Request: fold
Amino acid sequence: MKKSVSAYPYALWAILFTVIPLVMVLVYSVYNKTTGQFTFEYIKKCFEPAYLAIILHSFKVAIYCTVLCLVIGYPMAYILAKTKCKEKNILLFLVIAPMWMNFLLRTYAWLTILEKNGVLNKLLGLFGASSVQLLYNEGAVMLGMVYNYLPFMILPIYTVLAKLDDSVLQASSDLGASKMQTFRKVIFPLSMPGVYSGISMVFMPAVTTFVITKLLGGGQQNMIGNIIEDQFMVANNWGFGSALSLVLMIVILVSMVITNKLNPDDDAGGGLI
Reply:
């Protein structure tokens, strides 16, 4: 009885901030305010070539971002896991510290670094080079995304690697395996739960981002998140914005199901997030 009573605040929170918003999105996506009728016209519009191309582009950019975060993040997580305690705490602090700053401020910081009169162009000027257009392109967007989401790849992988039993690695060495063979056949397979967790935690925000593309892409690198924001904030077309959100939500849920199928071990990964 006490357990059920203690669950009421969580149930109320879930209803207010999860269930009700989801129901509202669903209703808006199938209800036309003008005609006062339920219709699937907004959902059908999501699959028009122009919007479908933006959705596919968003997934392509999110996949590139996730792969880059994995390529950069896995070695960093491995180094963290193998570093001695004192140095490890310093390195962990350097990874986590940017997350204490507001997401918007972190992105604005890259504006001052990449703009025409920014830090990088001033450094180039010291060597006699002319200024380079570093902002408002896909490269700047990708840089901002990788910078902001990299910790979400590093920490789950680090959590798994730090928990690896040293006796397993010692047994591999005793059986004649080289360091590369131990990594390839023991360490990497055992770290896959952290990898899957990191992929999920990077891919989902990357595919829905709109602040990074607006600031660093200058509105020239639109993704599905920007289109959804415009429908709500500019076009005042809540029905179509909700339909796009619903379609994106379904696609992300499908990708999460696939990831969970690939990752049968749900106990590991993401412990620090």
User: Anything to note?
Assistant: Confidence is low (pLDDT under 50) at residues 267-273. The radius of gyration is 23 Å. DSSP finds 14 helices and two strands in the chain.
